[in-house]
Write a structure and sequence with these properties.
Elements lengths: L18 E4 L2 E4 L9 H5 L13 H11 L5 E4 L8 H13 L7 E6 L5 H7 L5 E5 L5 H8 L4 H12 L3 E8 L10 H11 L4 E5 L17 H12 L6 E2 L6
Parallel strand pairs: 3-4, 4-5, 5-6, 6-7, 7-8
Antiparallel strand pairs: 1-2
């Protein structure tokens, strides 16, 4: 996903008049918006004017309002680690604040961050959830445009540091290779230690390009992956909470 450049192309297209252009900036009215994502679908940048810029102090203020009712926070994305200095500073503020330091600080990541980046995050991060979208490097390259060598390195390093909270596998019928590569994948997972594996079901809602025509994953698709892993000793598996 790109970043809004305030071109204004989306403003007249909004069916709920939730967007306006003022002094060269696209303004979003949250109280009017119906979350239809028309702006996102039409944007040449694949950006959304609903994204808001916030300082660390503003984020801390929002967290403080609900701190008594939550156990922790998770930063996600897009890819949260592209804003690594911000995340490190935010987590440090939480750890330093007596009224917030009970909160766990987690990261939901695609695993592309190099080890030097994870090392910077380690002192203030309580855990990382990482996606592995295919086992075979070529299959991962065809699916995402990037290989998965660095992702596997991140997963292994995080597990060694006891920072890997969860390994996530996105089941995409006809695209991901978890069943075909279940033997090698299971051996990799076993070597990580006692790590939960969450199976997520792909759905085409909000997806762009070729993937928009891919079939959404159903219970039978997820169960095939689960059975293949369990047959090879991987039993700590978390199925999807729901299917869309």
């Amino acid at each position: 996903m790109g970043r809004c450049n305030d071109c204004g192309e989306c403003v007249p297209q909004c069916p709920h008049q939730a967007l306006s252009l003022s002094e060269g900036k696209v303004l979003w009215q949250s109280e009017v918006c119906q979350q239809c994502d028309t702006c996102l679908h039409l944007c040449p940048q694949q950006a959304t004017p609903m994204a808001q810029l916030m300082s660390i102090e503003q984020v801390i203020q929002q967290i403080s309002k609900v701190a008594a009712f939550i156990e922790g926070i998770t930063v996600s994305g897009g890819e949260a680690t592209t804003q690594l200095p911000f995340i490190c500073a935010l987590f440090q503020r939480i750890k330093d604040a007596p009224e917030l330091r009970h909160l766990t600080c987690l990261v939901d990541s695609n695993g592309e961050l190099p080890i030097t980046g994870w090392e910077k995050l380690r002192p203030v991060c309580d855990g990382v959830m990482v996606d592995l979208k295919s086992w075979d490097n070529d299959a991962h390259l065809a699916l995402t445009g990037k290989g998965n060598t660095r992702i596997k390195q991140s997963i292994q390093w995080l597990a060694q540091q006891r920072m890997l909270s969860e390994l996530r596998l996105l089941v995409i019928p006809g695209q991901t290779d978890y069943v075909q590569e279940s033997e090698a994948l299971s051996a990799f997972i076993s070597a990580l230690g006692d790590i939960p594996v969450r199976l997520n079901a792909f759905h085409a809602h909000g997806v762009y390009g070729e993937a928009k025509s891919w079939r959404s994953a159903g219970p039978q698709d997820v169960e095939a992956v689960s059975q293949a892993l369990q047959a090879r000793g991987i039993t700590r598996i978390i199925p999807p909470a729901l299917y869309l």
